[in-house]
Design goal:
Distance between the termini of chain A: 39 Å
Oligomer: homodimer
Helix content of chain A: 25-40%
CATH topology of the domain at 3-206 in chain A: CV3147-like fold
Structural class of chain A: alpha+beta
Number of strands of chain A: 18
Largest sheet of chain A: 7 strands, antiparallel
Strand content of chain A: 25-35%
Largest interface: A-B, 21 and 21 residues
CATH architecture of the domain at 3-206 in chain A: 3-Layer(aba) Sandwich
Low-confidence stretches of chain A: 367-371
Shape of chain A: globular
Chain lengths: ~375, ~375
């Protein structure tokens, strides 16, 4: 069902989108400020993907860049709409709606900025079902809708159009080069598609899922009930039905570097009881890619690996990790359409240079994990 | 007067364009092969800039990249026309002619490749009057015609459009980023303008000058007369009227590195008579930027600094410099429109990070130079 999103929803959406950012995706709180500034007391129409017309013309919008840069370089807010208008002009066709390409992190908010500025509705779906570091890591592309032509806008009004045909990796490579030369952040419109394409290639209702997750965490805190139970209950009615606690501990080491336009690194989390002897390590490229417990993989991309505050369940991004933080690490299963062989080729472990095979988080052997 | 260029002219044009490349500009012999392959026994119409209609629509074409890469990566030949077509499509207007943006080096040839493929005529003018390493170093830009929108094509059919408004340096910066990510070479169409713009902003008859220089050198060799006298005589009837011999010697040291998409370095030339104690050094960024004799500047960009074979006057590019070569270094004055304060701001010494002031080669104090 279609519904109306207002400024009052944004704090919950930001919290849920940070969780789905799995450590990366950029800070949605910055995006939230951008939406609030333009939206005022109006509402944004959110369209259910099952209800849109087959020929609805949808142009998704997003920001690209290293999250570590986004924090220091707050966009003017007009760039994503400039990217959309640039692509419309190039295609000779105006959009009927926009949509996220990535429901995790700041890219949950960018289409809302566009909607608030233009009055366009937003389709409740995306192409990552979480956050990923590269523009080619999209169910859209996996199921036949390609990113080209892509329009990219910079903060000084720069406009770039990139067309690499069906080669979405080359599109990502060239757009990343432009983004680096724009200082680390670019705004994009790409993966233009019809309503029929949305139903065939997008992960449905991920924007509303992010909102519901953020709301469930807040309500549990207000009611002094477990926010972890609230997360599990919310997920149980979605395509992300399995939740597992992977580890509880204290952040004891974080290595992070911004390189080639990405934030790459690893974090070590030590057990609360040092005598247990357990070890736990996360590796990330913008987002958390793999969780190793006592050296064994207990969750791996594209499943979600989320670090949250041990008590409040507030999601923590990789750039928010600090020595001594007490955290809980959650593993969440992704929808089946993100786990097909074609999908894993685009954004499974091998796409990140990991040698481990994908094993669904709900199937990982749990012998070494306490109940 | 307009005239017809045929394949028989290409060897002379390549030689003259290499001289005007002032050490850089890419190898026109590769461009010559590309033209020959497409042209066959047909001719290309070369339009005199004084005779074209005010509303003739001209789209210049070129290759960008580090000359050291161009040698290893020969283009398919269809990319420059793809760049032109991409810009035509973007502008919604078809070109009546193409034109060089750079008469030195391979970019003397690229518009001929386009002409041979499309049947378009070529305007006998350019915006550098030599070779320069950056797309923003154009008399076009200095006198008010900007490079945006620029279309860029890659060897795998990639198409990119860059629009930075009046900011040609930002255009260069972004296009360079794409070129690097395409492996070091890109083909471009930019600085679209009218016939009236050509007369106002371009350096006239530089394509025919390159051809005449190459021809004069060849004929002098055939007639066993001095090719250096032939060069001087040819230049005397052009806007490049001053020729000075800066040094004669042997190449004794060359430092060269390809960095940030450019070939940068320096060459030391030792006197033929070591007892003279003279020193001579060239510094280059793709092209020769400054000539220092006994530590004093004797020629500096934008004047031409050309290294040629000591006997045959065959021009030698920076990548062609070899230990022990006997060479003659020539300084050639550039036209007045390349020496105005606005022009020097765009491509004078300061634009290359040199602290020396521009002094016209014909005015340099010659006390230390033997007659």
């Amino acid at each position: 069902m279609s519904w109306t999103l207002t400024a009052a929803d944004l704090p919950d959406l930001a919290r849920g989108a940070t969780l789905l950012g799995t450590g990366g995706g950029g800070d949605p709180y910055i995006g939230r400020m951008l939406v609030e500034r333009v939206l005022g007391d109006r509402g944004i129409t959110i369209l259910d993907p099952d209800e849109i017309a087959d020929d609805l013309f949808v142009i998704p919008t997003a920001q690209m860049g290293a999250p570590t840069v986004m924090i220091e370089k707050i966009p003017a807010g007009t760039e994503p709409t400039l990217a959309l208008r640039t692509l419309e002009e190039h295609l000779g066709r105006t959009a009927d709606a926009t949509m996220p390409i990535e429901c995790g992190g700041i890219n949950s908010m960018i289409p809302l900025v566009v909607a608030a500025e233009t009055g366009l509705p937003v389709v409740d779906a995306d192409g990552m079902g979480r956050a990923f570091p590269e523009l080619s890591m999209e169910t859209f592309a996996v199921y036949g809708v390609h990113g080209s032509p892509l329009a990219l806008a910079g903060e000084r009004g720069e406009r770039v159009i990139i067309d690499t045909g069906d080669d979405d990796r080359q599109m990502e490579w060239l757009a990343r080069g432009i983004t680096i030369r724009l200082g680390g952040v670019g705004h994009i419109a790409e993966y233009a598609m019809t309503g029929a394409d949305v139903r065939r290639t997008a992960i449905p209702r991920t924007l509303s899922m992010a909102l519901e997750l953020g709301r469930a965490i807040r309500l549990a805190r207000e009611r002094k009930t477990s926010p972890f139970d609230a997360i599990a209950e919310t997920l149980s009615t979605t395509l992300y039905s399995h939740l597992r606690e992977l580890f509880v501990g204290k952040v004891s080491d974080v290595e992070r570097r911004t390189t080639e336009g990405f934030a790459k690194g690893r974090a070590v989390i030590s057990p609360l009881d040092p005598a247990s002897g357990d070890t736990f390590e996360l590796q990330f490229q913008n987002e958390n890619l793999i969780a190793l417990r006592n050296g064994a993989c207990v969750a791996i991309v594209p499943d979600l690996i989320c670090v949250v505050d041990e008590e409040t369940a507030e999601p923590i991004t990789t750039e928010g990790l600090r020595y001594g933080q007490r955290v809980r690490v959650l593993g969440i299963s992704t929808p089946d359409m993100m786990r097909t062989p074609e999908a894993l080729a685009a954004f499974g472990p091998g796409a990140f240079g990991l040698s481990e095979e994908f094993v669904p988080v709900e199937h990982v052997d749990r012998a070494d994990v306490p109940a």
